[in-house]
Write a structure and sequence with these properties.
InterPro entries: Poly_Biosynth_Transport. With 511 residues, the chain is an all-alpha fold. It contains 21 helices and two strands. Strand 1 and strand 2 (10-12) form a beta hairpin.
């Protein structure tokens, strides 16, 4: 926790060397899952309802505008969160300087983003983008005010506080978005949802965070964070480009409808990766940072986190792929054809399960430069690949265009993950790649079996059921299949389950 100094400033307790307390890491992982499960659960419900009320065009416009805003947010952040979380010794002066710079820069970057909105609209040949981008520009200001307090909570593994903030914001913004969509607000229902989510999150964050900035800003302290931040910022821009190149070029070449189909198809598996693997990602940086001087322990902890991410992430993606057909039918005819890109992007999510933890691992071990090189390579390859696809598929239907982008993304992710695993596990941590991957094999088998369930059950007429009933049947059969395979093939899963089952007390001897 943070400690108040005699002068009234707040100093963060230094990170202790050696492994973190198991109870604290376990609690952080638990609250991280609560945080992400609650947010994703509410987001799934809200996304489904909004998709039924709206359509691909509105979702596409929002996705294209959010890409532009994300670029501005990435420029603003400049790797400050990673620098604060990873730094071994952090004082109140560091936090004060970072907060002052980010708060001031937030207004400047937001104003610049608003001014450049017509340029983004012109690039995408979509006049509606200008006003939507201007309306979303305050998200940059809000982020500038939130970065430091959130980083303080994450550094101290206080994920209970982060969970409260995220859940409240998701629930309130979801209610606002659905109410406006029912009232016929169209795209503005989605815009309002984003703004309310960020604003409520900011207010709750400052309520739950114990740290407060002082009135004095010592800009000399920012230089001590700058070296790491510069590398992390470089990596952050590369990650942003590699993660958003698909949406950028889908919008530029194919327009809002294809972008909306692709965004919804990508969002569903991405939310599952959020609740399963990115929950671990939030814990990975602070917990692995404490092991940066013990490579053997570092590699063992990273392998353990990857195994946990695989057993909770891969099977649910297989189940989602199995339910793609009836799920799209349930959303309505405006989303017809989305089931194929959804299945492709479930495969992308499965590949991404093996890449989510590698970035925090490289940052934790003090090598963000390697992460930057990998991210920029992936981003530039993505730019070239998606630009070629955009040229070749300009005359296709929107669902086929979204599918082509998804297939290309899977191929790129396979190549980049292979390189990233080698660099992180073998070169940086000095561990065996085979030992890192082998524990996840049962999860791969379970996910594959779940995804193939429709080929078996459709012969029994399940494909003729109403969409909602089809989702339930496919999901139940796929989930049970994956669970049975995991239980029989993964001894670590059995150990985890048995560890959490209540132990039976021996019967008292009869008198």
């Amino acid at each position: 926790m943070t400690n108040a100094s005699p002068s009234g400033t707040v100093e963060a307790a230094p990170v202790q060397s050696g492994p973190p307390p198991k109870s604290k890491v376990g609690s952080a992982i638990g609250w991280s899952y609560v945080l992400t499960a609650g947010r994703v659960g509410s987001s799934v419900v809200v996304t489904f309802l909004l998709a039924m009320l709206l359509g691909p065009d509105e979702f596409g416009i929002l996705a294209m505008a959010l890409v532009f805003v994300t670029i501005a947010q990435t420029i603003l952040q400049q790797g400050r969160v990673s620098a604060i979380v990873q730094r071994a010794k952090l004082t109140g002066a560091h936090l004060d300087a970072a907060f002052g710079v980010l708060a001031i820069a937030g207004f400047g970057v937001a104003a610049l983003a608003a001014a450049l909105s017509p340029v983004w609209s012109l690039i995408n040949r979509e006049p509606r983008l200008t006003v939507v981008c201007v309306a979303l520009a305050p998200l940059v200001v809000i982020q500038g005010l939130a970065i430091v307090p959130e980083a303080v909570l994450r550094r101290e593994l206080q994920f209970r506080a982060v969970a409260i903030r995220t859940l409240v914001a998701a629930l309130v913004s979801g209610v606002v978005g659905i109410a406006l969509a029912l009232a016929g607000a169209g795209i503005w229902a989605l815009v309002a949802q984003q703004l309310v989510n960020a604003l409520i999150g900011l207010v709750v964050l400052w309520v739950v965070c114990p740290w407060r900035p002082s009135r004095r800003i010592r800009f000399g302290a920012i230089r001590e964070l700058w070296t790491f931040s510069l590398h992390s910022a470089n990596a952050g821009l590369g990650v942003m480009l590699s993660n958003r190149a698909d949406l950028i070029f889908t919008g530029i070449f194919f327009g809002p409808i294809a972008t909306g189909i692709y965004r919804l198809a990508a969002r569903l598996p991405d939310m599952l990766v959020d609740v399963t693997v990115r929950s671990l990602q939030q814990v990975a940086l602070p917990s692995l940072s404490r092991l940066q001087n013990d490579r053997a322990a570092f590699a063992a902890h990273l392998t353990q986190l990857q195994h946990l991410g695989a057993i909770v992430g891969l099977p649910v993606l297989g189940v989602l792929a199995a339910t793609a057909g009836p799920l799209v039918g349930f959303l309505g005819p405006q989303w017809a054809g989305t089931e194929v890109p959804l299945q492709v992007l479930c495969l992308f999510g499965a590949v991404n399960v093996y890449g989510v933890l590698l970035g925090p691992a490289l940052q934790a071990i003090g090598q963000p430069g390697k992460l930057a090189a990998i991210s920029w390579t992936r981003g530039l390859l993505g730019v070239a690949t998606f630009a070629v696809l955009g040229t070749l598929f300009t005359s296709g239907n929107p669902a086929a265009q979204a599918t082509a982008i998804g297939i290309a993304g899977v191929g790129l992710q396979v190549v980049v993950n292979a390189v990233s695993i080698w660099v992180t596990v073998r070169r940086a941590a000095g561990a065996s790649v085979l030992r890192f991957l082998l524990p996840t094999l049962p999860a791969v088998v379970a996910a594959t079996a779940a995804a193939l369930v429709p080929y078996a059950v459709n012969r029994l007429g399940v494909d003729e059921l109403p969409p909602l009933a089809g989702v339930v049947v496919m999901g139940a059969v796929g989930g049970l299949t994956a669970a049975a395979i995991l239980w029989t093939t993964d001894r670590r899963v059995r150990a985890l389950v048995r560890k959490r089952l209540p132990r039976r007390r021996p019967l008292a001897p009869a008198q």
